[in-house]
Design brief:
CRP/FNR family transcriptional regulator, anaerobic regulatory protein (chains A, B), homodimer, WH_DNA-bd_sf (chains A, B), four-stranded antiparallel beta sheet, Jelly Rolls, alpha+beta, elongated, WH-like_DNA-bd_sf (chains A, B), Arc Repressor Mutant, subunit A, 11 strands, DNA-binding (chains A, B), RmlC-like_jellyroll (chains A, B), 8 helices
Amino acid sequence: MDTAETAGLLSAHFSAWAHLTKEEQDGMLSDTVLTRYAKGACIHNGENDCKGMLLIKKGQLRTYMLSESGKEITLYRLGAGDVCVLSASCVLSAITFEVQIDAEEDSEVLFISPLYLQSLMERNIHVECFVYKTATDRFSDVMWAMQQILFMSMDKRLAVFLWDEIAKTADDTVHLTHEQVARDVGSAREVVSRMLKYFSSEGIVELSRGGIRIINKQKLRKLAE
Amino acid sequence: MDTAETAGLLSAHFSAWAHLTKEEQDGMLSDTVLTRYAKGACIHNGENDCKGMLLIKKGQLRTYMLSESGKEITLYRLGAGDVCVLSASCVLSAITFEVQIDAEEDSEVLFISPLYLQSLMERNIHVECFVYKTATDRFSDVMWAMQQILFMSMDKRLAVFLWDEIAKTADDTVHLTHEQVARDVGSAREVVSRMLKYFSSEGIVELSRGGIRIINKQKLRKLAE
């Protein structure tokens, strides 16, 4: 990957880029490294690891918590154009926890080293601000996941609803708007849309203007049980 | 409370204060309101509420998630000098979730209104940076709580250990260092210290140089079960 392409990606997805001096931009470009990962590879391994800030060029990454006994809890997924800063926790005093990150698809990832990120954060408050705002975005993702896991409500309710619908109509597609579904499951449209997006990222449904097509009945049934 | 006292609290605990212009400081002082809460009072009630940024002058607040069915999950506690920004989520695009905040003791809380905070964040990047860094601190608190809740390990293990110790010695105080306890429960000293601090905030133990004194055996036993 050439420097111009790296600069293009950084300027598009790292919003502090425009606030860097020419010297800082050049320094960042020479520090940035592209790494390719095969599907299933471990990218960041909790406390034994500090990869720095990463920007996904291609593919999909899954971030999760891992217990001592090996239990995994998926926190969120990131795709092309997304930035991850939890992998730079060693240089971020406000982040005192560790996560695991795997490649869920063949992925290409840009890395900005932790030491370089740290020096840039110390010099440029726009970089510091970007990093903590990005961390706060992930905080929101995690809180959403926790709501689902701890209160076990919407995912199951929505799965039950979709399962009942396709059983009733003998059609793999549910021809309803998110608004209508929300009314039926007693929730808000935003909540249903977000959950459907999650179902879609899990390969359970396919969303289109025409409705919600179930593409993995087995997974849906498991959720509905 | 007079203006000088408010300014003193802001300058001590709102680290962006020194980066405000005189005009911004004056504006903030005239926007800031002190409110007193009795123990048990609700301070912030999820999505129906947007109180702005708050700074605790006195007392203790508990932040928790609330399910539709009324189930509560404690996320963290804040005390004198701590700042909360989750109560300003309506003006923070990166925060898409809602929490509940109660007073656990009689408390005095300074409020900076959401609209004023928003206008200050737009004008002054140090304020924006402070807000998102504070949110990231809370992210760490929440992740710690989630680790405990989802993986149910250290709290229970530590409670079992303490329970066994006091039964063995017929003494309410466990005369061991955190380091020694950590070795015995197979964990790191930092983890044990943090958990003991949590036990202490829950009124289960009292920590001193001499050791760990159990002050609520019933609560400890319940944890150990």
